[in-house]
Design a protein that fits this description.
- The chain is built from 14 helices and nine strands.
- It is of the alpha/beta class.
- The chain has a six-stranded parallel beta sheet, sandwiched between helices. Strands 7-8-9 form a three-stranded mixed beta sheet.
- Helix 9 (about 170-200) crosses helix 13 (about 260-275) and helix 9 (about 170-200) crosses helix 14.
- It starts with 7 loop residues before the first strand and ends in a 5-residue tail after the last helix.
Length: about 300
């Protein structure tokens, strides 16, 4: 016996949300979306989705509501209040927040939603724009096992590695750790790039051989061309990584974990943003190393 696929409401159609919602459409789901930019709504309808004029309209008869917005304040803005998800979704709906926010915001949202009979999963992702387009994201999930099991087919239309990490907020904690590792990794790669170039080595050849050894990483593979071409069009903006480094340094402080290298990289991300590069891809950490090394940027 076949069950009809759940009806999806998608809130937030940005760099990540647009391709992700399109992957659900390709998988046969009915998706009604709401976002602030009309061109993104047009893109959704062109892909076969339905545009909604408000959050309330989008979620009204949805079985599953997915939010993909920049940070905790935006999650709170779309979830709470008279026009928000909790007031307008039906009891029994499943709210999956795929934004990267503070673990505490996720815990609080789950508690508030429970009072309305709405179930919540926090399910942030890693893999960037390319991972979203290719549906190979890593999805780290916090919440109840039964809700996770119900959402799994949907997650598998969006990503390749799907793991429940524990109760509410756990997905966000793992995402914070992910962002710590990624930032430190990009910074190390950026330092190597400037060192190699100043030494007169063939950079493309050097990065190829490094990628094949213990220094190899997904970061190096994904960002190699950004470094070689100085192409810093955003797949993941410095502004957002700055937000994430704030989340991880604050959360680590709360639990008593020292992040000595992470704290330094958080400051380098902050300095890049202060120099007006917040809208660039996080591989633009290279620009800070170049400035510090006396190279004209």
């Amino acid at each position: 016996m076949t069950h009809a696929l759940p009806k999806i409401a998608w809130i937030g159609l940005g760099i990540m949300g647009s391709p992700m919602s399109e992957n659900l459409l390709k998988a046969g789901y009915h998706v009604t979306g709401h976002t602030l930019e009309q061109d993104k709504l047009d893109r959704l309808t062109a892909a076969g989705g339905t545009a909604a004029a408000s959050v309330a309209e989008a979620v009204a008869d949805a079985d599953v509501i997915i939010t993909m917005v920049p940070a905790s304040p935006q999650v709170e803005a779309v979830a709470y209040g008279p026009g928000g998800i909790l007031e307008n979704a039906r009891a029994g709906a499943l709210l999956i927040d795929m934004s990267s926010i503070t673990p505490q915001t996720s815990v609080d949202l789950a508690a508030a939603a429970r009072d309305k009979g709405i179930r919540v999963l926090d399910a942030p992702v890693s893999g960037g724009e390319a991972g979203a387009i290719e549906a190979v994201l890593s999805i780290m999930v916090g919440g109840d096992q039964a809700d996770f099991d119900e959402a799994r087919p949907l997650f598998e239309a969006l990503g390749r590695t799907v793991v429940r990490c524990g109760p509410h907020g756990s997905g966000q904690t793992v995402k914070a750790a992910n962002q710590l590792i990624v930032a430190v990794n990009i910074q190390a790669c950026a330092e190597a790039v400037v060192f190699l170039e100043k030494s007169g080595v063939d950079l493309a050849a050097a990065l190829d051989v490094l990628a094949g050894g213990l220094a190899g990483s997904t970061v190096l593979t994904r960002k190699k061309d950004n470094f070689l071409r100085r192409d810093f069009r955003p797949g993941f903006r410095i502004d957002l990584h700055h937000k994430d480094m704030g989340i991880v340094t604050d959360a680590a402080r709360t639990v008593g974990a020292a992040l000595p290298v992470g704290a330094v990289v958080a400051q380098l991300v902050a300095s890049l943003r202060a120099q007006g590069d917040g809208g660039l891809d996080h591989s633009a950490l290279l620009r800070t190393v170049e400035r510090l090394s006396g190279a004209g940027v």
